[in-house]
């Protein structure tokens, strides 16, 4: 028993990034953080063609929104083995002989869009409680909860969403808890969840919006912001103490055992072999989960709406040297310069949130433009599940209210890819990246535009969902 | 009912003096300035009823549209609104809203409350009236919620944010009553172990209430008959506000607006209306109308629906974004509505989805937020299109309103500019200051949706 505990403890200390993987892990869980970073789909199953063997497809004649190197009219993009292998003007790209060529003349081609905060895979029918795995409301501090443990890869919501050109998303528990658990980065197609969960427990939301107060019937601690902040601070301190204990234990364990003068008898010596060695501290999954965040190795998505809350949350983050991505800041319009000065990226709040009393009707609509103007790197998020498909129109509306068009596109593609650490794989039409490519009959941000075809990891995704099936069934009556 | 009548006559007395150019009119109520005509010049006019007029003009006189065309005969002193490069369309009409009611959406203490009057809960200072106005919405039907099989009676408002309450009321708008079926009444009363907790229970409650009203009506008709024959022994039955309201439904004096999701429920509601002899005006939400659209069309019932909301509860699980267009193609009059403090700020975007999902034409899409909801409310003879004689409820946009990038520049109601985005501050030229109330929230009767 003891040696097993010790082995686990050592593993934890050696690989603090993946503390949670010392627990019974899913069979296909990546063994090392390096593997987690990869967004190449895991080994293929029998049902789908292997990414490694996916046939070459060339999209010819479209208007390519590359994101990173401008717009290419009459362009060609080649996808092979799940990757983009060529991008350029039709005249400049030679299409491989074995490639299937699809004419996309008149179409707009762009990289798959990324929704930076959704609950896809955690809910099916909102009002049916048994179909929800949105948050563990029994406790406020749940960093050891992992979205990947609940992610429902076969959700009917996923085909509905990807048909609108959203190919990747950050799945997050709902914001009812201060620390509701760690996020997953998903791809919206794959044979099962192992293939769809590209990154597991790679970041953690820290919510400080007031919605975490326990003020329901039978109100209990923490029922105020003071309570929430104090509880959080205590949790961080406890986790630091815990890590310290393990460090000390590890240090002592490494020291050679000193001879015990009182037991020279060989018989006793054997019996007291472990005497003098330190006892391993009791393991605590919650504190282990916090370790990589307190070490600044994984980012915390610090989410607040009001400037007063943002100040508190930011000071807590500084106190514990957290690596921060900001979330929402919807009503913090009086501290936009201060936000810009932090140089932190922002996952902007849903711009369709209702403006506060005493503000102009467009005070929330203009938030993305105001942030971008100050040089803040922004990304859009739906903060939704069923309506995640409408993410591009949020960006479009932000353009109507002053956000430059190019910035809006970036905030759905390369910006979130950079923020989430996957820009080497996603977020633009560039050679070597995962072939998540969307073909639409117009501007991706316009409501009227129809997405005609989505490719995920180079595979042609069937453009069907439960909704198209109902449409087709009842169209024939 | 009497209540409503009295209010409307008061509106008549106060009046909104047509074009009394706001500032002065309010400051110098004693000297009523002579009304001045307004001309909107040189815009792309989306009339909704008769196509698009490029470089067209609209003459507004006494709050009404006096002329529309390539050219109009504007008097030299007319106030000019230059719409060069702009798009002009009728004010947007929302056929399903619970905004500006300060949360008093459901009197959920009994499943039959036809005598509740939403006007009694109207918070005319609610900021959402302004937010929606700034998104081009000029008329809304504020309905009772869906907790009850038979809810209260709606109030129709024009979004004249900043004026007194009675000036927001749409004059002489037809009365509408809210019915509801399905999960909401089941949940509300079932959770208290009361009737109804099933769909059988729902319709039993509805049928029983209508039966009671039928007998009440019979008693009153008998009394009226006796009075007509000068019968001195005629004794009036007891007046009962609840049954009186339902009797008016049976008399055909009130539009019935039904919150209803499932295909089987549409058919039950149509059958019950036939059984008791009243007319249904529209199904609201109606996310499955596409399944039985021919029957809904044949019954002459309209549809006020979401563009693409789905999955928030079991009865919304079969929702598809093609519902609006599929139903329209079968002859149903379809409106896209908000049911929300968010969507009533951008119904133009929601209507544009009808182009994407099902290939509606631009005019068909625009009808879904103008003429069709006007018909559902029963005011299509007065608003909903840019036609001579109609109220001058007009919105001016910087781009085509069905574009994702379009913004409202001006919202005009009865010829007065109530919202102007070029103004600093709130952009409300007629707002006199004072409270701006209202919380966040969704303003919806399906509170479980978010």
Largest sheet of chain B: 8 strands, mixed
Tally of DSSP β-strands of chain A:
17
Low-confidence residue ranges of chain A: 1-50
Helix-strand topology string of chain B:
HHEEEEEEHEEEHEHHHEHEHEHEHHHEEE
Largest interface in this structure: A-B, 41 and 49 residues
Oligomer: heterodimer
Q: Helix count of chain B, per DSSP?
A: 13
Mean pLDDT of chain B: 92
Global structural class of chain B: alpha/beta
Helix- and strand-based class of chain A?
Answer: alpha/beta
Shape of chain B: globular
Give an account of the 3D structure.
The complex is a heterodimer of chains A (477) and B (450). Chain A is an alpha/beta fold and 477 residues long. Chain A is 28% helix and 19% strand. Chain A has helices at 2-14, 33-37, 157-162, 193-196, 225-254, 266-271, 285-294, 307-319, 336-342, 367-373, 391-400, 405-410, 414-419, 466-475, and strands spanning 57-65, 71-80, 83-89, 100-103, 108-111, 113-118, 166-171, 184-187, 197-200, 204-207, 299-306, 323-331, 346-348, 378-379, 437-440, 451-456, 459-461. In chain A, the strands form 3 sheets. In chain A, strands 1, 2, 3, 4, 5, 15, 16 and 17 form an 8-stranded mixed β-sheet that branches. Chain A has a 5-stranded parallel β-sheet with strand order 10-11-12-13-14. In chain A, strand 6, helix 3 and strand 7 form a beta-alpha-beta unit. In chain A, helix 5 packs across helix 7. Chain B has 450 residues and is α/β, with parallel strands linked by helices. In chain B, strands 1, 2, 3, 4, 5, 15, 16 and 17 form an 8-stranded mixed β-sheet that branches. The longest helix of chain B has 30 residues, at 199-228. The relative contact order of chain B is 0.17. Chain B is globular and about 65 Å long. In chain B, strand 6, helix 3 (127-133) and strand 7 (137-142) form a beta-alpha-beta unit. Mean pLDDT of chain B is 92; it is low at 1-30 and 446-450. Chain B starts with a helix and ends in a 30-residue tail after the last strand. Chain B has helices spanning 2-14, 22-27, 127-133, 165-168, 183-190, 199-228, 241-250, 263-276, 293-298, 323-329, 347-356, 362-367, 371-377, and strands at 38-46, 52-61, 64-69, 79-82, 87-90, 92-97, 137-142, 150-153, 155-158, 175-180, 254-260, 280-285, 302-305, 334-336, 394-397, 408-413, 416-420. Chain B is built from 13 helices and 17 strands. Classes of the chains: A alpha/beta (477), B alpha/beta (450). The interface between A and B is large, with 41 and 49 residues.
């Amino acid at each position: 028993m003891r040696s097993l505990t010790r082995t686990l403890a050592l593993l934890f200390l050696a690989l603090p990034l993946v503390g949670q993987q010392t627990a019974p892990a899913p069979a296909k869980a990546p063994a090392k953080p390096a593997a987690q970073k990869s967004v190449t789909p895991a080994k293929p199953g029998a049902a789908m063609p292997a990414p490694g063997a996916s046939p070459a497809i060339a999209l010819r004649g479209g208007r390519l929104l590359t994101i990173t190197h401008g717009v290419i009219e009459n362009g060609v993009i080649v996808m092979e083995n799940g990757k983009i292998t060529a991008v350029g003007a039709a005249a400049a790209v030679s299409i491989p002989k074995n490639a299937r060529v699809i004419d996309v003349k008149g179409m707009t081609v762009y990289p798959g869009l990324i929704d930076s905060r959704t609950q896809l895979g955690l809910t099916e029918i909102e009002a049916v409680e048994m179909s929800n795995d949105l948050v563990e409301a029994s406790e406020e501090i749940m960093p050891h909860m992992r979205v990947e443990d609940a992610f429902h890869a076969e959700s009917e919501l996923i085909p509905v969403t990807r048909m609108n050109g959203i190919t990747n998303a950050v799945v997050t528990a709902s914001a009812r808890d201060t620390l509701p658990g760690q996020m997953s980065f998903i791809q919206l197609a794959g044979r099962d969840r192992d293939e769809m969960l590209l990154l597991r427990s790679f970041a953690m939301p820290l919510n400080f919006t007031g919605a975490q107060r326990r003020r329901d019937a039978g109100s209990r601690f923490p029922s105020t912001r003071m309570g929430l902040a104090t509880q959080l601070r205590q949790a961080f301190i406890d986790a630091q103490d815990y890590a310290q204990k393990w460090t000390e234990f590890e240090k002592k364990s490494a020291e050679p055992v000193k001879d015990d003068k009182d037991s020279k008898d060989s018989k006793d010596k054997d019996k007291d072999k472990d005497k003098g060695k330190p006892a391993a501290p009791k393991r605590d999954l919650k504190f282990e989960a916090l370790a990589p965040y307190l070490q600044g190795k994984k980012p915390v998505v610090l989410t607040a709406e009001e400037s007063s809350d943002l100040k508190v949350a930011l000071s807590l983050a500084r106190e514990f040297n957290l690596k921060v991505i900001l979330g929402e800041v919807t009503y913090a319009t009086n501290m936009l310069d201060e936000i810009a000065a932090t140089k932190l990226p922002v996952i902007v709040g849903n711009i369709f949130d209702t403006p506060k009393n005493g503000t102009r009707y467009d005070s929330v609509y203009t938030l993305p433009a105001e942030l971008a103007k100050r040089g803040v790197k922004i990304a859009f998020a739906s903060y939704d599940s069923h309506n995640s498909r409408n993410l591009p129109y949020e960006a479009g509306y932000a353009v109507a209210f002053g956000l430059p068009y190019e910035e809006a596109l970036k905030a759905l593609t390369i910006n979130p890819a950079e923020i989430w650490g996957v820009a080497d794989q996603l977020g633009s039409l560039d050679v070597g990246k995962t072939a998540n490519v969307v073909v639409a009959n117009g501007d991706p941000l316009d409501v009227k535009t129809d997405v005609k075809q989505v490719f995920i990891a180079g595979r042609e995704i069937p453009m069907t969902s439960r909704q198209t099936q109902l449409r087709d069934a009842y169209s024939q009556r | 009912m009497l209540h409503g009548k009295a209010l409307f006559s008061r509106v008549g007395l106060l009046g909104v003096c047509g074009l009394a150019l706001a500032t002065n009119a309010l400051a110098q109520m004693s000297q009523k300035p002579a009304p001045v005509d307004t001309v909107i010049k040189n815009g792309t006019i989306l009339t909704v009823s008769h196509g698009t007029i490029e470089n067209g003009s609209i003459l507004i006189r006494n709050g009404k549209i006096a002329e529309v065309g390539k050219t109009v005969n504007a008097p030299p002193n007319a106030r000019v609104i230059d719409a060069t490069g702009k798009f002009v369309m009728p004010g947007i009409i929302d056929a399903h809203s619970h905004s500006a009611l300060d949360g008093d959406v459901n009197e959920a203490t009994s499943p039959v409350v036809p005598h509740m009057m939403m006007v009694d809960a109207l918070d005319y200072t609610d900021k959402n009236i302004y937010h929606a106005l700034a998104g081009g919405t000029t008329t809304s039907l504020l309905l009772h919620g869906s907790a009850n099989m038979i809810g209260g009676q709606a109030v129709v408002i024009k979004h004249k944010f900043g004026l007194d309450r009675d000036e927001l009321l749409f004059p002489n708008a037809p009365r509408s009553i809210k019915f509801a079926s399905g999960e909401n009444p089941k949940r509300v009363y079932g959770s208290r172990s009361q009737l109804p907790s099933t769909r059988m229970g729902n319709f039993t409650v509805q049928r029983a209430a209508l039966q009671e009203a039928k007998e009440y009506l019979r008693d009153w008709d008998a009394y009226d008959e006796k009075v007509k024959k000068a019968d001195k022994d005629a004794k009036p039955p007891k007046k009962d506000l609840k049954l009186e309201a339902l009797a008016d439904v049976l008399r055909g004096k009130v539009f019935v607006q039904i919150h209803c999701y499932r295909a089987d429920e549409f058919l039950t509601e149509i059958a019950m209306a036939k059984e008791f002899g009243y007319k249904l005006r529209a199904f609201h939400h109606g996310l499955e109308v596409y399944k039985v659209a021919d029957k809904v069309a044949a019954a002459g019932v309209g549809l006020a629906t979401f563009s693409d909301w789905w999955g928030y509860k079991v009865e919304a699980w079969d929702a598809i974004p093609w519902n609006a267009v599929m139903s329209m193609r079968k002859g149903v009059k379809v409106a896209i509505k908000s049911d929300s403090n968010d969507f009533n700020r951008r119904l133009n975007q929601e209507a544009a989805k009808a182009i994407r999902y099902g290939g509606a034409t631009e005019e068909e899409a625009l009808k879904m937020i103008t003429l069709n909801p006007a018909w559902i409310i029963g005011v299509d003879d007065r608003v909903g299109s840019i036609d001579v004689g109609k109220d001058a409820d007009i919105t001016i946009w910087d781009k085509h309103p069905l574009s994702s990038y379009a913004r409202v520049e001006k919202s005009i109601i009865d010829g007065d500019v109530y919202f102007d985005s070029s103004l600093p501050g709130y952009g409300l030229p007629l707002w006199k200051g004072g409270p701006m109330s209202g919380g966040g929230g969704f303003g919806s009767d399906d509170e479980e949706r978010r």
